[in-house]
Amino acid sequence: MNNKQIYQENMSPSQSSGRNSESRNAIIVSYYDGTRITVVLIGLVLIIMGLNFWENDSQFMDSQSLNIPVFVGILLVVSNVLIMINRRVKIIGNRIIYTSMFRISHTFSLYDIEKVEIASYHKSPGEKIIITLDDCSFWITVDGCCQGYDELKKFFYHRGMLTVSGIIVRPFDYDYESGIDYEDYEDEYESGMDYEDEWDKLLR
User: Fold this and answer.
1) Cβ-based burial of 153 (10 A; exposed 0-12, middle 13-18, buried ≥19)
2) How far apart are CA 147 and CA 29, in angstroms?
3) Which tens digits make up the pLDDT trace of 126-183?
């Protein structure tokens, strides 16, 4: 059974209908964050340095070398400004809408998702969510510093769609009424790691 089938089973009619009112409120993730602003500032510094070299007409650098800092700076500024202004991840109901830096929108059903994985969650602030869709041919990366990241993480967690280190994290894994066979998790307990505590940290 692949991840997509597991996700569909987790999203049972009783669960999804119970969250109808919640799903009407869109979850919006913005890529306007401190990291992108820092990169823009670095780009501006490179542009200023390049222009300063031009003005001083450096005898130790040819014209092509003088152009490199300016071109790199312009690329950094333009690309990151477009990302901050245009790139979005929006979830409305069972649809996930991804808008690229060029305002090109891609719409998927939540059932098209192959995997939602938290990468480097032990290495904050390097935490990020990677959403893989369409048989691994398309993926969306959301950095932990993005606005709306926590809401996105909670959304997938409460639907049993969040994966950490290859293990699907479900809020009902430790509910005795769920019928979970705890022998399936004996490898986790033998490792000496309290996965329940680790999973609870994801929502903090």
Assistant:
1) buried
2) 6
3) 789 999 987 777 899 999 889 999 999 999 988 888 888 788 877 755 444 444 443 4
Ordered by start, the domain boundaries in the chain are: 3-29+112-201, 34-85
Q: What share of the chain is helix, strand, coil (3-state, %, to 5)?
A: 50, 20, 30
Cα separation of the two ends of the chain: 31
Segment 12-28 shows an average pLDDT of 56
The CB density around residue 160, as the number of other CB atoms within 10 Å, is: 19
Radius of gyration of the chain (CA): 22
CB 66 within 8 A of CB 44: no
Query: CB within 8 A of 147, min separation 6: which ones?
Result: 29, 30, 32, 33
- What digits encode the pLDDT tens for the residues 54-104? 777 655 556 666 688 899 999 999 999 999 999 999 999 899 999 999 999
Q: Which residues pair with 117 in a beta bridge?
A: 130, 163
As given in the structure block, the two tokens for residue 65 are 């070398």
Give the global pTM: 0.68
Residue 8 host element (H or E)? helix 3-10
Look at the alpha carbons of 113, 119, 124, 125 in this order and tell me if their dihedral is positive or negative. Answer: negative
